[in-house]
Amino acid sequence: MAVTGKTVGYLIFLLPLAFFSCLRLDSNLFNIGEKIQSYQLDNYKGEREISDLPSSYSVNQDLVSIFTLQSDNNGNKAKIYAIYIGDKTRIGKDTVILYCHGNKNHMDLYWNRAKLLANVGQKHRFGVLMMDYRGYGLSEGEPTESGLYADVSACLQWLKDNGMVNQRLIMYGFSLGSAPATKLTAANPILSPSKLILEAPFASAETMIQDAAKLSIPGSYFVNLEINNAEEIKKVKVPFCWFHGEKDDFLSREVQGQKVYDNYTGIEKRKFIIPEAVHNDLPSKMGFDNYLKALEDFISN
To answer: Label partner for 211 (CA 20 to 30 A): which of 175, 197, 204, 258?
Structure first.
């Protein structure tokens, strides 16, 4: 067969696709980063989200608990680590924010975000629960989509066992965490959150690939993840609040978050689009007090 210029061009087009399809987004989406020996929290010296958090947003260390939970993903069990900020004896009375973090590193990276949430309204007014998905931080196992849902479900079961009820549970998902937050708010046999907060959510795995690659090729060619927040949000009927940075160059506000927001048809929705914010600095760019006030108004009303 003669090798024409057209054939060469076709092969040049296919080779990178074959390479990237072998890599697949499934594994690359979960950026577990460095291995750690322990959680350092305030003493952590590595990369940190919201590195400019003032000391006035500190939390009472007597109310910080690091513990483990057993997560069962259809028989695939893993010990996962979680952090609770608040008085565990008051879970049966307090409102609790369950925070599902992004795809990178571990809870030390997101510690300042959890501290901020513990400062919503009067300090320590709300409990905050955060976990490391399997494979992240000290949590056992390998990260998978179904594992995300199992790990967050394990946290929901722990809250329920400690007295939590639907009306006092708030679900918050950031970036990758928007997937378990949305899906488990839409339908959950353990607890049904009373409100959903999403920061920088993505519409679906398919849309994320299309947005990143700018190629008219089905996302399934690269990824077998079934995450579809834009569809799952249609099942959410509780109040919904959306935060997104206008300059987010990782998950586009217009292509990703807007689809999720537009597809919500429940009883109440709010949005906060922050002009100068990118993917991971929205609380800073919005202003910490403004961010906390927006959260308190949404949660309390």
So the answer is: 197
> For residue 143, what is the domain's CATH number?
3.40.50.1820
Lowest mean pLDDT among 29-33, 117-121, 278-282: 29-33
Backbone angles phi, psi at 67, to 5 degrees: -150, 175
Q: What is Dmax (Cα atoms) for the chain?
A: 77
**Among 196, 180, 40, 197, which residue's Cα sits nearest to residue 105?**
40
The string of pLDDT tens digits covering residues 106-135 is 999 999 999 999 999 887 789 999 999 999
Q: How are strands ordered across the β-sheet holding 240-245? A: 64-73, 76-85, 127-131, 96-100, 169-174, 195-199, 240-245, 269-274
From the list 149, 248, 235, 224, the residue with the least C-alpha distance to 196 is 235
Which residue, chain included where needed, has tokens 């000290």?
138
Question: How far is it, in rounded angstroms, from Cα 167 to Cα 48?
Answer: 32
Count how many Cα atoms sit within 13 Å of the Cα of residue 128 in the half-sphere of its side chain. 27
3-state DSSP call for residue 273? strand
Q: Minimal CA–CA distance to 151: which of 101, 206, 223, 222?
A: 101
Model confidence at 222: pLDDT above 70: no
What's the whole-model pTM score? Answer: 0.88
Which of the two residues, 8 and 47, has the higher pLDDT score? 47
What is the number of domains present in the chain? Answer: 1
Provide the phi-psi class of 137: left if phi over 0, else alpha when psi is between -120 and 50, else beta: left
Residue ranges making up the domain that contains 189? 5-300
Cα distance between residue 159 and residue 204, in whole Å? 28
The encoded tokens of residue 244 equal 């997104």
